[in-house]
UniProtKB/TrEMBL annotation:
Pfam families: A24_N_bact (PF06750), Peptidase_A24 (PF01478). One of its GO terms (biological process) is signal peptide processing. It comes from Candidatus Roizmanbacteria bacterium RIFCSPLOWO2_01_FULL_38_12. Residues 19-99 form the Prepilin peptidase A24 N-terminal domain. This is Prepilin peptidase.
Amino acid sequence: MLQINSSIFYILYSIFLFIIGLFLGSFLNVVADRLACEQTLGGRSKCDTCKRKLSWIDLIPIISYTSLKGKCRYCQASISIQYPISEIATGVVFTLTWILSQNAYPSASVWLHFVHIAIASLIFVIILTDLRYQIIPDEIHIALIIVGILRFLLLNSPVQTSLFFSLLNFMLIQKFGMMLVAGMAVMLPLLLIFLITKGKGMGFGDVKFAYIIGFLLGIKAGLIALYIGFVIGGIIALFLMILQKAKLKTKIAFGPFLIIGFYIMLFFQMDLYSFINSIYGF
């Protein structure tokens, strides 16, 4: 009976997270567009065509878009389908992030799982801005560093006993310094590409995001995440060229591929290491 109740609670909680993700997805769409256009985050949403301010009934995720048949209530201008799709995607990402975080860090504080959801939210903004405008706003990098520090403290909080507190505090500072160095080490390959190609082969937003990856994951996991991003990005680019959807000089957003590598190493790091060890025996 207890197991059944636990399963029902787990399902209901997942549904709750999905719904929260839907509403936050609508907000993150606004954040992405306003940051990319260097607008303030305050103020009500408005129609891009007629500039009419939207009421709350126009902003209900999925429902508003469906009931209005994908058009503005006031001027009948078409609303891009990317908005409901991104709302659904946010709901799915929220739910999966919570589940994967619990599986990857079973003994961690519940606050760590919320931090991972916060990271997922910020990364979702990166995906939207990179795909739509091929930029990654500095505000998101700063927010990720702040959230990354919170994650570091949750994973490395010392036991504050009178005998060992000073030593542990020193070790904490030392470990934090290693995170800063890891960020620079992971950023270096993309920085070199950026400098050599004079910004044509790599956007500086991707360079800065590589620093975030190293800062959050460490040198080893960060470099592997970078490698995974390059491999997946290369495969997709090759596939697009075969289909004649892209050419060698076609610009393709690299941020989403870096994010895939980051997520794999964030939640499947130990599984990947075990898989590599089983093949190569090291």
